[in-house]
Specification:
Largest sheet of chain A: 6 strands, mixed
CATH topology of the largest domain in chain A: Rossmann fold
CATH superfamily of the largest domain in chain A: P-loop containing nucleotide triphosphate hydrolases
Number of helices of chain C: 12
Strand content of chain C: under 5%
Radius of gyration of chain A: 25 Å
Order of helices and strands of chain C: HHHHEEHEHHHHEHHH
Low-confidence stretches of chain A: 507-512
CATH class of the largest domain in chain A: Alpha Beta
Mean pLDDT of chain A: 87
CATH architecture of the largest domain in chain A: 3-Layer(aba) Sandwich
Radius of gyration of chain C: 23 Å
Number of strands of chain C: 4
Chains: A alpha/beta (512), B mainly alpha (363), C mainly alpha (326)
Number of domains of chain A: 2
Low-confidence stretches of chain C: 312-326
Shape of chain C: globular
Distance between the termini of chain A: 58 Å
Helix content of chain C: over 70%
Mean pLDDT of chain C: 88
Distance between the termini of chain C: 76 Å
Shape of chain A: globular
Largest interface: B-C, 45 and 46 residues
Strand order of the largest sheet of chain C: 1-4
Oligomer: heterotrimer
Structural class of chain A: alpha/beta
Chain lengths: 512, 363, 326
């Protein structure tokens, strides 16, 4: 079969972060196939695709499209060459309609004026021809995430994309939505389009791809056809060693209730309902997982518990203390720690020194301040102990932290939050975007904390993480708890059903 | 590591120097185009702003006197900027402080020291309250503080004009003005014939206090974190709205204090045209002083010297309009802020030097 | 209504329209920059440059229209410089605006004094004010004719620009690109829209419009330049753009409101003994109130959705759908 894409000897170095993202990468994809590009975070797969899409320029290497040498200086040129990209974070204009988004930059016009009715017809025709129905006049801000993704795909198809690059497309979808989505991809491949799927989820690679390229540390490790490989050998190639997906084993008998949420209602930024009547308890020594597809109220729930968002109704209790209306610093004083999802803007202040970052949760307390003034020596001592205990590489007290890697930044957050021996820890997506080593470190730290008595609420969209850490798993769906399972009872299928809003047989539901 | 911190230090020093040189070069072009000798002009400017022939007639003392409100207003802007508020309302708060001080200066009669303390305290309060308004509008309704502070400045300028023409007007002289304040309310000066006095000492003391407050106290920490990264601050348990409002009130208080000192130490009253943009200049001083008290003091004095030098050296001696001073300052601010421009220049120069150096070593 | 009262109102509106014009032009310029995602606080400086160069060019060229044209070009150039420092060297918008405003306010006086001596204002007898133009037919309609006819070219231009900008923003591909850039730069960029070019364009156009507003002051309304002639109108324009939600029609109405308020203030100053400074408070206080209204509106929107939701949440918990899980 003909090669739709052929990239040879691609190298790319980022001076600002001193990362060699691609090192002599050879990559090719045949037309009419779904080609998976897999690798860990930071393996260089997104960089490679950004080069193909003209968002980055390679330092070395050549690109051929349909056998012809090309230069891709800009996304515009990529579009001309028939390449379309669906980014991990959607690039949509919220106040524009579906049709306006799809036709942005290629609007049909007459005498220089837009033809808004005709635009809707165009989009409807396009959507029907690919079997991807949408309502062209609907505002994008009113669409579900799955529909927004459909709009993104239609955007590329409208531009006659024969090569589609999809960056982690299933991260925002339920397992069922993902299956639906895979059908769309197969359908596109059968129509002769080339689909390049960037992902680190191996099961979906096995499900949908024809070919797979594995990358690690900026290099290609393996290229194979799906029929010649299996999930374990792919995992081995991806990580460079054997990894075991295991459930949490050693069970500690959970102790008394550490924290409780009662019939909680919270609204999102635009005022819409986000959390509706959620209740649960977290016990001593226990890790309770909140699973679910992102955007089902996780952020609002986390923020309400940690005091960053107003509660509309219901209660949050810490031990037996009602903290529903307590200020953040009061919650922290009562023994709550918070590992936020966004470590770059919320968990840390990259504009200031390491010292000032490690005291934000306890700067009022002795010995870090006395008589209203900060005590530099005590703060430095704390900073040094965190650096040492959590092995934060290349960090120094008194210096900035902006140049530290994601893993080291997260270790810093972890160190600060765990240093006061909190009773209750709220951890939101604590390993998102980290490398394997850091993930293991974070997991180990959380398990240690739970063993030494803390109750932990782990909010994560990563099912593997949930399985390997949690004693009980609650699934959040559209702002409500769809069900709670004990670790022994839970499996991927059951979680999948709950995450998609389905019902389990009542007998299987966990009532303790 | 050591290399990066070294080049960082170089940049910290080089960028302002290069910016100043670029500003001066551009001003020289303007001078040449208008048929003046840049060298003569700049030496006249420096000679007049920073010279001191004899103690009774010392230009530099006048520079220090002029620097006093600039330093305090610069500190005011520094505290606001560091708290995340781009408040350019120093002019208004300065005037409000001056009005209150001038009024209490003649309306009530108290023994010295007490009278002075009461005036300054009242002016601080007035400035602080005036700054609280844009602060509360920002934190409650998210109204852009740049626009509100500009409007509040206009209102204060009009209010100043109103009080000196109407309620506080004394003699129907050519310039509308208020009664002089009591002797007990004036601030002593250091030398006969110069108005450089205790106010300057207060300004220096204020900058030391501001430094310790902003960089060493827990409240200052709260304000800086709220300014740099509100999300982080809130996450850590800092009440950001309170911290921001406190920043605005302190900022306004400093500007109000500047107004009181200008009344008590220099004019002893308020009159039409009381402020010649001393509040606005405070913003420039803060920007050029890297919003740091040490920088504010140094730049405040230099700035005052440039203003004075432009007034005396350029305008009086050389018939070059004194506004050239403002033009130079605007250009320097532009170049200082475009620091990456100079980083480009520094980097290419370094590369170039390295190349020469390595070739030299090879040979 | 008494005839003379009617005349008074027409008169008031006419001077309101005149006073609104410089603010409208600058506010439209600000609105288009805002739409492209650049909050422009340098309208004041851009206007002042227009006033200064407008009258100088009118004098040199012996043609006031030529003066207006030069002002527009100079404003565009200043807009380009602003864009260059902002887009290329990422200078903070507020600092950039402070520097530009200072540069122009001091620079204009510097050049004025260099060329024409130590003066606070300047004019020359040879400079002609832009003539008022009567629109045929319209001028004969009672009341409306008086309201709509008999202004100079810049006023008509401001109306045409309002309509034109409205059509461009909402009915042309280019306008849609501008709005897309302002709302989500990354999205626009990913589709191959040249974000920098659009922002350059918006700032250059905005600069030109501000300067035209400024030129109106020095050759349309009066025939003189005084130091700091824009006198805060640029900041009024910033407010008008925000109050008008950056929609040309809204901006037009907001500017007209400010203009009529100004005209009313002028009348009040002549007719009453209230100190003029207190009357001059009005536009400033109104501007702050306008922003408060915008802020309250934004908050009310959220509150409204919240109220709807709290009704819903009550219903849900009554349905007993949520059981405590332990």
């Amino acid at each position: 079969m003909a090669l739709a894409v052929e990239m040879t000897g691609i190298s790319k170095y980022f001076p600002s972060t001193a990362v060699q993202a691609n090192r002599g990468v050879n990559f090719s994809a045949e037309s009419g196939q779904v080609h998976a590009l897999v690798g860990e975070n930071g393996a260089g797969k997104t960089t490679l695709m950004n080069i193909l899409y003209g968002l980055h320029q390679p330092d070395e290497g050549e690109i051929k499209i349909n056998g012809k040498h090309v230069l891709v200086p800009t996304p515009n040129e990529a579009i001309h060459l028939g390449i379309g990209m669906v980014h991990q974070h959607f690039k949509l204009i919220p106040s524009f309609t579906v049709a306006q988004n799809i036709l942005l930059g290629i609007e049909p016009h007459k005498y220089g004026l837009l033809r808004q009715g005709y635009e809707n017809d165009m989009v409807r025709a396009l959507a029907d021809s690919f079997g991807l129905p949408v309502e062209p006049s609907e505002k994008v801000s009113n669409l579900t995430v799955g529909m927004q993704q459909r709009v993104e795909i239609l955007k590329t198809l409208q531009r006659n994309a024969y090569i589609l690059l999809l960056d982690e497309p299933t991260a925002v979808l339920t397992p069922q939505e993902a299956d639906e989505f895979f059908k769309v991809l197969r359908n596109l491949a059968e129509r002769g389009r080339t689909v390049i799927l960037i992902t680190h989820k191996l099961p979906e690679v096995m499900k949908v791809a024809d070919q797979v390229t594995v990358m690690r540390h900026g290099e290609v490790i393996e290229v194979t056809s799906i029929s010649d490989t299996n999930i374990n050998s792919l995992a081995h190639a991806m990580v460079g060693r054997n990894i075991v997906f295991n459930k949490k084993e050693s069970h500690v008998r959970p102790g008394e209730v550490i924290a409780e949420v009662k019939d909680l209602f919270v609204s999102s930024n635009n005022g819409a309902a986000a959390v509706m009547g959620v209740s649960f308890q977290v016990h001593k020594n226990e890790i309770l997982g909140i699973a679910g597809v992102s955007g089902n109220g996780q952020n609002e729930l986390t923020e309400a518990i940690t005091g960053l968002r107003e509660v509309d109704k219901g209660k949050v209790l810490l031990a037996s203390l009602d903290i529903t209306k307590a200020a953040v610093h009061e919650r922290r004083k009562s023994g709550m720690a918070h590992i936020p999802e966004d470590r770059m803007t919320m968990g840390l202040n990259l504009q200031t020194t390491l010292d000032e970052n490690v005291i934000v949760n306890q700067y009022r307390q002795k010995p870090y301040s006395r008589a209203g003034f900060l005590v530099a020596a005590a703060i430095r001592k704390l900073a040094n102990s965190i650096i040492e205990r959590f092995s934060v590489a290349s960090a120094k007290t008194g210096e900035g932290i902006a140049t530290l890697s994601g893993g080291n930044l997260q270790k810093l957050v972890l160190g600060r939050e765990l240093s006061g021996n909190p009773h209750f820890i709220v951890a939101s997506q604590p390993t998102r975007g980290l490398d394997v080593g850091s993930i293991e470190f974070v997991h180990k730290s959380l398990l240690d904390a739970s063993r030494s008595g803390a109750g932990i609420l782990l909010i994560s969209v990563d099912i593997d993480e949930i399985f390997s850490l949690c004693d009980r798993i609650a699934v959040l769906y559209r702002g409500q708890i769809a069900g709670v399972l004990s670790a022994e009872d839970a499996d991927e299928q059951k979680l999948g059903i709950l995450m998609a809003g389905g019902n389990l047989d009542p007998a299987e539901e966990m009532t303790q | 590591m050591s290399k990066s911190s070294f080049s960082k230090k170089i940049n910290v020093l080089l960028v302002p120097v290069l910016a100043t040189i670029s500003g001066l070069i551009l001003s020289s072009v303007i001078l040449l185009l208008t048929n003046h000798s840049p060298i003569q002009a700049f030496s006249a400017l420096v000679n007049s702003g920073f010279s001191c022939s004899k103690l009774t007639n010392c230009n530099f003392f006048q520079t220090l006197q002029l620097a006093t409100p600039l330093i305090l207003n610069g500190l005011s802007a520094t505290v606001a900027f560091r708290s995340g508020m781009f408040s350019i309302g120093q002019e208004g708060q300065f005037l409000m402080g001056a009005i209150v001080a001038a009024w209490l200066g003649y309306a009530i009669h108290l023994p010295p020291v007490i009278h002075q303390i009461v005036l300054i305290a009242a002016a601080v309060l007035a400035g602080g309250m005036y700054a609280w308004i844009p602060g509360i509008l920002k934190v409650k309704l998210n109204i852009n503080e740049v626009i509100t502070t500009v409007m509040m400045n206009n209102i204060a300028i009009l209010f100043m004009s109103y009080v000196v023409n109407f309620p506080m007007n004394v003699d129907k002289g050519s310039t509308a003005r208020s009664s002089p304040i009591d002797i007990s309310a004036t601030l002593p000066t250091f030398f006969q014939g110069s108005k450089w006095g205790v106010g300057f000492v207060i300004a220096i003391a204020a900058s030391i206090i501001v430094y310790f407050y902003i960089w060493r106290s827990t409240r200052g920490y709260e304000q800086r974190m709220s300014g740099q990264s509100p999300l982080f601050a809130r996450f850590g348990g800092i009440k950001t709205t309170r911290a921001v409002l406190r920043g605005m009130i302190i900022s306004g208080g400093l500007a109000g204090m500047a107004g009181a000192i200008e009344v008590m130490g220099v004019h002893h009253r308020i009159m039409q045209g009381f402020s010649t943009g001393l509040g606005f200049d405070g913003v420039m001083v803060a920007l050029l002083g890297q919003t740091h008290p040490v920088g504010v003091v140094i730049v405040g004095i230099l700035f005052a010297g440039v203003r004075l030098g432009a007034q005396i050296g350029l305008q009086t001696f050389m018939q070059i309009p004194r506004e050239l001073g403002g033009v130079i300052i605007a250009l320097i601010i532009l170049f200082v802020s475009a620091d990456t421009f100079f980083k480009d220049v520094v980097q290419t120069t370094q590369k170039w030097l390295n190349k020469i150096f390595s070739r030299f070593r090879k040979a | 209504m008494d005839g003379s009262n009617g005349l008074l109102i027409v008169d008031l509106l006419r001077s309101g329209i005149r006073l609104a014009t410089p603010i409208l032009l600058a506010a439209l310029g600000g609105a288009i920059s805002n739409r492209a995602g650049v909050l422009d606080f340098a309208l004041e400086g851009k206007m002042l440059l227009g006033s200064f160069l407008g009258i100088l060019a009118a004098f040199w060229l012996h043609n006031s229209y030529g003066g207006a044209l030069v002002a527009v070009l100079a404003g565009g150039l200043l807009g380009w410089i602003f864009a260059f420092f902002y887009l290329k060297y990422k200078v903070d918008l507020v600092i950039l605006a402070i520097a530009i405003n200072l540069l122009i306010s001091e620079g204009t006086v510097f050049f004025l004094r260099t060329f024409y001596g130590n003066v606070g204002s300047w004019t020359d007898a040879s400079i002609q004010q832009l003539p008022d133009i009567q629109i045929p037919i319209v001028k004969n309609i009672p009341v409306i004719g008086q309201l709509l006819s008999g202004y100079n070219a810049i006023i008509y231009a401001s109306w045409i620009l309002t309509a034109l900008l409205y059509v461009v923003l909402f009915y042309t591909p280019f306008g849609r690109h501008i709005r897309a850039v302002g709302e989500n730069k990354e999205a626009a960029k990913a589709l191959g829209i040249n974000v920098a070019r659009i922002q350059y364009f918006a700032l250059i156009l905005g600069g030109g419009m501000c300067a035209l507003g400024g030129a109106f002051l020095s050759i349309g309304h009066l025939t003189m330049f005084t130091r700091n002639m824009s006198n805060g109108r640029g900041w009024m324009a910033v407010t008008a753009a925000l109050f008008g939600m950056n929609n040309p029609i809204g901006v037009f109405l907001a500017s007209l409101l400010i203009g009529v308020a100004d005209a009313l203030a002028v009348r009040l100053q002549m007719l009453t003994t209230i100190p003029p400074m207190l009357i001059q408070f009005l536009p400033n206080v109104l501007a702050i109130l306008a922003l408060v209204l915008v802020g309250l509106r934004n908050r009310a929107n959220v509150a409204l959705i919240r109220r709807k939701f709290s009704l819903k949440s009550q219903k849900i918990s009554e349905d007993g759908k949520s059981e405590a899980i332990s």
